[in-house]
Amino acid sequence: RETVLEAHARILSAASKRQKQDWSGMGTTCTLGYIFRDPHTRLPRELLTAHVGDSRIARYREGIRDRCTFDHSHIQLAIKSGAMPERADEFGDPEIDARLAAMHEGLREFIRNHRNEITRHLGQHDALDVDTARIPLATGDTFEFTTDGVHDNLLDAEMSAIGLAHLGKPADHARALVHIAHERSLTDHPRAKSDDITAVVA
Questions:
Q1: Span 4-19, mean pLDDT?
Q2: pTM score, two decimals?
């Protein structure tokens, strides 16, 4: 948390010292992980995470992919409040599309058009709240870090299939995510989006 808050303070300081208009209001998301080792055995024990914004961390364990972070976005707030159904951000999945259409004809387009609107970022003028977690590690765990250019273009199920197809090969896993997300971004697919496409797998 302290590292993220320090970066946040530096962004605010840099922006305030610049007279250029294009520096005003600058900011960024931040999602990071640090492996904590047992002080006696030196074996990895926990993944410590800090998260602000809409990049994501997911864990693969025993063939199952689980999200470790949740977006700080208006869409996610609506899901948590019950105003939108679970997994509403997974439009493009026929099951989810049918549920959204049953609620309101234009709901999918509303989500598509507003999915980039985040509620927290480094550089904001309000006090910054940083989500942190300690995730116990198990043998064989793999963690996937992605920017929204990856997971906005791809469904969770698609990302899971890519990850499971490259188990034990983190570099290939990351390259496949980036390549497939980039290819999707160039199409007329309903999830297609041009944005930063970055993946780190370890």
A1: 86
A2: 0.91
